[in-house]
Amino acid sequence: MFDLDLWREIFQSINKNRARGLLSGFTVAFAIMLFTILFGIANGLENTFDELFVKTADNAIYIYSGRTSKPYKGLQVGRKVSLYNEDFEHIKNEYRNKIEYITPKLNRNFQVSYINKKGSYNVIGVHPDAQHIEKVKIKDGRFINLNDIKNHLKVIIIGRLIEEDLFGKISAIGQYINLEGINYKVVGVFTDNGGDSQERLAYLPTTTVQQIYIGKDAVGEINLTYNRKMSSDEALTFGTDLTKNLRKRKNVAPTDQRAIRVNNMALQTKGIETMTGGLGILIFIIGLGTLIAGIVGISNIMIFIVKERTKEIGIRKALGATPKSIVSIILIESVLITALAGYLGLLIGVGVLKWVGPSLKEYYITNPEVHPNIILTATIVLIAAGTLAGFVPAQKASRIKPIIALRNG
Amino acid sequence: MLEIKQLHKSYPIGDSHLHVLKGINLLVKEGEMVAIMGSSGSGKSTLLNIIGMLDHADSGDYILDGLPIKNLTEKKAAEYRNKFLGFIFQSFNLINYKNAMENVALPLYYQGMKRKERQELAMFHLEKVGLADWAHHLPKELSGGQNQRVAIARALAANPKLLLADEPTGALDMSTSYEIMEFIQQLNDEGKTILMVTHEEDIANMCKRIIRLRDGVIMEDTTIKQVRAKQHV
């Protein structure tokens, strides 16, 4: 029920007691503003974190081979260990359920030229899965497919910056570029969030590289990503398992770090998980702390307000005000002020974040912002706290004998 | 109009009790103007507060205009105060952020009267106490006498059966006191029943009946010849 007269009473009371309104309004606005800013900054830190670790997949495992550093089963130190197609297939089949994507990686530096422009670029022989492991985004055309692998096709997928270097403004798709004497058809151009160096790469089918440049089926290194359903602990176990298996298969001492090396990103992921977890707790504590400070502030003010209005309450009661009307006039006033001030604090906080946000990038804070729902919840919590804090003394004041209230005036 | 039988009231003081009213019997008829006198601590203010439903008696009967006043809920007490009683206090007790007219209109607000009506009625009563020109002034912009007249207008606004005054001239100088008393006498002449607590003999003599309290009992109850305040102004 809308009672115009009640609202008139409330607005008059607010209007004529500005200091009181400003005091409680300021507390709430300040609490919400602080809450927004601190929460925003904490979120910004988390954003930076996320951004730093997106260059390659965070669930990747890299397998490298080298020369043995320990004698084993009569084999001498310094023997060169290489990974071949059969090793690749073995891993792929053995761990079918634990692997998300897998590709061999044959790295070579080539002089690449198109008409009269040329440059030296890193070219990698890969399988189609590499697109997902390297987090490559296709800009034009396509990535390597199984047909390329099967038929040893001379196709190439180049980075955005190679296209820019060699082709300028025209599209590279369908053109032929020369890799030290052999022509390759450009079938795709990609972009990569990992930075410029990641966009000055080119990808070939592994089999093409093996056939033309190596002459045997060595695969260089093997990259894979593990199934995301695994926890980081399970992924770590998978990594050690894989290492043991490969060392045994390649007749390498089980402790030989140089011959077969497995680099498991799960280790890093676990560290990041712990850190983001810690950050989350920090954010929670910050939010809770600011809110509690705000609640304590508004509670104090409400108690003070009711105390200050005791005489007025006595007068009103002597003139025929019911306890209910006393409680509602005090509470509506406080809720009104808290809600308005909370909204104001929210606007200021969001404004500050928008204003200083971009300049905080160098302090590892990216896009500091707070989800509106979180702020809304915080404001509601503050209003509820203010109401509760006001309700108890207001209820008490409404029960006070008018004569006592009047005497204290 | 007002009937009180064997009224007792005591206040707890530490472990013991202070027996303030020890069996008061009182009958006030319509149109009377009664002064309750006594030294401080005699129980005169307590009696007035109980009559004003601002305080509860421990035992005894209190009947106001045929209605027994007993075990009232807060809501009922608020309603009765609003309908039956008008208060005039020593310290005026106006709401400091409301102007004269709004203060006078407040009891009408609690009666649920419409804004326009209650403003008109408030203006009517302000005119009656001679303050129509001051309707939009705040209490702090008015003199003590003017404030008390606003308070009287407020007490009259709801057209109560009984007017209760607690030292109405206590905070005023001599000539203003007489001015206020002249008003109150005028109201009595028009038929309002008035109960007043005072410790000033000259003010009491302007009523029609004086009740003297001592140690919680009525010592003396005399009807006197009223002194008209007009003679002093």
From TrEMBL, chain A:
Which subcellular locations apply to this protein?
A: Cell membrane
Task: Kindly list the residue ranges recorded as spanning the membrane.
Answer: 21-42, 279-306, 326-353, 373-392
Where in the numbering of this chain does the ABC3 transporter permease C-terminal domain appear?
A: 285-402
Instruction: Give residue ranges for domain MacB-like periplasmic core.
Output: 26-229
Q: Which GO terms describe its cellular component?
A: plasma membrane
Superkingdom = Bacteria
Q: What are the top taxonomic ranks of the organism?
A: Bacteria, Pseudomonadati, Bacteroidota, Flavobacteriia, Flavobacteriales
Principal place of residence:
membrane
Keyword GTP-binding in annotation: no
The family assignment reads: Belongs to the ABC-4 integral membrane protein family.
Q: Note the Pfam families from the entry.
A: FtsX, MacB_PCD
Its membrane topology is listed as: Multi-pass membrane protein
Q: Which InterPro entries match?
A: ABC3_permease_C (IPR003838), MacB_PCD (IPR025857), Macrolide_Exporter_MacB (IPR050250)
Picking any one GO molecular function of the record gives: transmembrane transporter activity
Q: Which UniProt keywords apply?
A: Cell membrane, Membrane, Transmembrane, Transmembrane helix
Determine if Plastid is one of this entry's keywords.
Answer: no
What is the designated name of this protein? Putative ABC transport system permease protein
Automatic annotation (TrEMBL), chain B:
Which SMART domains does the entry mention? Answer: AAA
The keyword Isomerase is assigned to this record: no
Q: Which PROSITE patterns match?
A: ABC_TRANSPORTER_2 (PS50893)
Q: Which GO terms describe its cellular component?
A: membrane protein complex
- Record's protein name: Putative ABC transport system ATP-binding protein
Show where the ABC transporter domain sits.
Answer: 2-233
Similarity annotation? Belongs to the ABC transporter superfamily. Macrolide exporter (TC 3.A.1.122) family.
Matches recorded under SUPFAM superfamilies: P-loop containing nucleoside triphosphate hydrolases (SSF52540)
Q: Which InterPro entries match?
A: AAA+_ATPase (IPR003593), ABC_transporter-like_ATP-bd (IPR003439), MacB-like_ATP-bd (IPR017911), P-loop_NTPase (IPR027417)
Report the GO molecular function annotations: ATP binding; ATP hydrolysis activity; transmembrane transporter activity
Q: Does the keyword Transit peptide apply?
A: no
Q: Which organism is it from?
A: Seonamhaeicola aphaedonensis
Q: Which CDD domains does this chain map to? A: ABC_MJ0796_LolCDE_FtsE
List, alphabetically, the Gene3D superfamilies matched. P-loop containing nucleotide triphosphate hydrolases
Give the matching Pfam families. Answer: ABC_tran
* Keywords of the record: ATP-binding, Nucleotide-binding, Translocase, Transport
